[in-house]
Write a sequence for this structure.
């Protein structure tokens, strides 16, 4: 199988299988009551293989358990994505029109379906950025080059308007993916991936910068030292450190290494004096960037370079890197080789850092100690865990 065919197969399995949503879903909310108390966490897992994916969404009172099954989960008979903000959970489904639904839980643990927002021209909402309880942004992927960034109220699920992204459009390039949206100061930073015929159309890392006051892309910056800001989930393209410096993950191509770029605080251009070549330092292609300290982050590195798209099973390992000092500390001990293209994550839930080791039929959530940089098994989940959120 040549590279183009491999990428086409992977992008279909990844984007379509993760995001396609069949209108046939089980909407009986009363059947989804995994706990009799207040829900404080929610998770979404996926089972099956494309095109026969099933997603399972459920709330949990706590994470102090050995195993989580899907007996009380709400079922969707295709892939979906879960996001969270405050007391609300948001699930993005695909199909024309693109649909994102809001879910809450009452004090008895019962799931309540709230309002939804639709984009008639879109296929899915891929990247979400929450500003506050009444302000958020979402990037959409559409058909025939119809892509946009919308502004909406996550409480009422009412659309406020479209962000003017005309500056990012390129003649002859039909598909653009918005890869994570992150707020810094009064601006939004968005990774932009240009694609044509299932191949990168621009062999550079590209970031669009939105002025929140004008609701318009005011600048597009690019850097050819790496390429392809391309992640499978909502997070992992950017790492915003406490000092305000923004680090950008480039996945790379056959001609460009995967690597990390930097946009210094109070600047809107790539730092010409900083580049972390991960192909050289980590010994292979890396993707996703999850910061956990003032200097360090976790990434996932490919194991078998001949199966970049994980068509033959899990193929990434978690590594610790120091993005400020440009060093690779090494592989995290005690973890298996995992699916790294989409479900990999390290995030702080409550006061605990949790890391996802997703395999084909089950996933294991580990507690990660940021001081000792060690892991301890916390619980297992039926299916491939894609999202875990806190309900506040």
């Amino acid at each position: 199988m040549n590279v183009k065919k491999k990428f086409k197969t992977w992008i279909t399995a990844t984007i379509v299988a993760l995001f396609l949503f069949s209108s046939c879903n089980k909407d009986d909310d009363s059947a989804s009551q995994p706990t009799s108390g207040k829900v404080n966490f929610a998770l979404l897992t996926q089972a099956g293989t494309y095109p026969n994916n099933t997603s399972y969404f459920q709330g949990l009172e706590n994470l102090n358990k050995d195993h989580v099954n899907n007996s009380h989960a709400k079922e969707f008979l295709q892939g979906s994505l879960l996001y969270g903000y405050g007391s609300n959970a948001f699930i993005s489904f695909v199909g024309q029109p693109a649909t994102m639904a809001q879910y809450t839980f009452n004090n008895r643990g019962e799931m309540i379906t709230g309002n939804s927002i639709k984009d008639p021209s879109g296929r899915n909402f891929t990247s979400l950025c929450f500003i506050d309880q009444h302000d958020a942004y979402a990037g959409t992927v559409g058909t025939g080059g119809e892509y946009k960034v919308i502004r909406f109220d996550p409480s009422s699920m009412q659309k406020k308007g479209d962000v003017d992204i005309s500056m990012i459009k390129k003649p002859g390039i039909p598909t653009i993916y918005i890869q994570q949206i992150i707020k810094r100061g009064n601006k939004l930073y968005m990774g932009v991936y240009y694609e044509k015929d299932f191949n990168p159309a621009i062999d550079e890392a590209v970031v669009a910068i939105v002025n929140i006051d004008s609701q318009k892309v005011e600048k597009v910056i690019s850097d050819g030292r790496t390429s392809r800001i391309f992640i499978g989930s909502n997070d992992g393209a950017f790492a915003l450190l406490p000092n305000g410096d923004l680090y950008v993950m480039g996945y790379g191509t056959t001609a460009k290494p995967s690597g990390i770029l930097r946009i210094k605080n109070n600047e809107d251009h790539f730092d010409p004096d900083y580049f972390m070549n991960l192909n050289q330092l980590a010994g292979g292609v890396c993707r996703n960037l999850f910061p956990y300290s003032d200097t360090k982050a976790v990434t996932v590195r490919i194991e078998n370079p001949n199966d970049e798209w994980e068509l033959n099973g899990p193929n990434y390992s978690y590594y610790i890197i120091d993005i400020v000092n440009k060093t690779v500390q090494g592989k995290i001990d005690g973890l298996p080789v995992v699916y790294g293209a989409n479900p990999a994550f390290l995030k702080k839930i409550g006061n605990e850092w949790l890391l996802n080791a997703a395999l084909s039929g089950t996933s294991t959530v580990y507690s990660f100690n940021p001081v000792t940089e060690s892991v301890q098994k916390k619980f297992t989940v039926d299916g491939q865990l894609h999202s875990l959120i806190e309900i506040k």
